[in-house]
Amino acid sequence: MGELTWRPYLWDTPRPAPPHEIARAEAALGIHFPADYRRIVAVHQGEVPDPNLFDFTEDGRRTTSVMGPLFHFAADEAGPARSYHLLASLELRRDWLPPRVIPFSEDSGGNPIAFDFRHSASAPPIVFVDHESGGSAVWPIAASFSEFLGLLHAEE
After folding, report:
1. Which pLDDT belongs to residue 133?
2. Looking at residue 129, what is its pLDDT?
3. Residue 46: pLDDT above 80?
4. Rounded distance, CA 48 to CA 4, Å?
5. Can you tell me the distance from the alpha carbon of 50 to that of 32, in angstroms, rounded to the nearest whole number?
6. Cα–Cα dist 55/26, whole Å
7. Could you tell me which residues come within 8 angstroms of residue 55 by beta carbon, excluding any fewer than 6 positions away?
8. pLDDT per residue over 106-132, tens digit each?
């Protein structure tokens, strides 16, 4: 695997996430994001990783999916980027997403890539949630955000 880089997606230029905006979202959610995620999203919110493919096991078979942009924390953002705001994205999914499963991105089909805080408040694993299952299909991807980023790859 090569080095991970980040490409603009929501905006033409980088828009770092101020620590107080991340802290505001954490307070609203009653969680604390892992430090590795906070470091990355602070610099790369709204950007897409390159490479951006990842694999996980779904119903006993290997599945490859694609990571979209990191959700952002820009509270005043309007327009198309609004649906990529972390709290707005969570609100859109609240009816079916399991409690304490917090999306930080999504794949090209709108399936959340998320932190699973249900069993660990300090070290949440990364999961894939199949939106067509109504949130009942939650598939593990990685034990941590850093491990998840390490799994990202280009087409084979």
Report:
1. 81
2. 96
3. yes
4. 10
5. 26
6. 28
7. 62, 63, 64, 65, 151, 153
8. 999 999 999 999 999 999 999 999 988
Q: What's the whole-number mean pLDDT along residues 36-53?
A: 97
83: tokens are 């649906």
- How large is the average pLDDT for residues 27-44? 97
Cβ-in-10-Å burial (0-12, 13-18, 19+) of 46 comes to buried
Asked whether 90 and 97 are in contact (CB, 8 A), the reply is yes
Q: Identity (one letter) of the amino acid at 64?
A: T
Residue 46 and residue 12: Cα distance in Å, rounded?
10
Burial of 85 (0-12, 13-18, 19+ CB in 10 A): buried
What one-letter code names the amino acid at 83?
S
Q: List the structure tokens of 9.
A: 């997606």
* Chain center to CA of 86: 9
Whose tokens are 């087409």? That residue is: 155
